[in-house]
Design brief:
mainly beta, 7-stranded mixed sheet, 4-stranded antiparallel sheet, 0% helix
Length: 123
């Protein structure tokens, strides 16, 4: 069983900063790409940022130069540092990871999601 647990969501004022963290646990063999997605009210879930096992990163245009994604492979964690927050950043943020895990004696590669953490940016 693999779990992703996010933390760090909060209510913050415009221009403020937040740091989201996500920890993966369970029968993990290796983790490929990790990332953050978000879903605003009445909107679809969109990519925010991803990071590969080799630390290559990719960002949505709307967050470039404001958000930074990083990971700690030893701890199986991924972090999203969010600066200069705007009201349009308000959303539920989800952690995602492509994980090779040992499931009932079989190696399986699957995408896993966290439960989501709420980020609210007030004007």
């Amino acid at each position: 069983q693999v779990q992703l647990v996010e933390s760090g969501g909060d209510l913050v004022q415009v221009g403020g900063s937040l740091r989201l963290s996500c920890a993966a646990s369970g029968s993990i063999v290796s983790i490929n790409t990790m990332g953050w997605y978000r879903q605003g009210p009445g909107k679809q879930r969109d990519l925010v940022a991803t990071i590969t096992s080799g630390d290559s990163t990719d960002y949505a245009d709307s967050v470039k130069d404001r958000f930074t994604i990083s990971r700690d492979n030893a701890k199986n964690t991924v972090t999203l540092q969010m600066n200069s927050l705007k009201p349009e950043d308000t959303a539920v943020y989800y952690c995602n990871a492509r994980i090779l895990a040992l499931v009932r004696g079989i190696f399986k590669l699957n995408d896993y999601w966290g439960q989501g953490t709420q980020v609210t940016v007030s004007p």
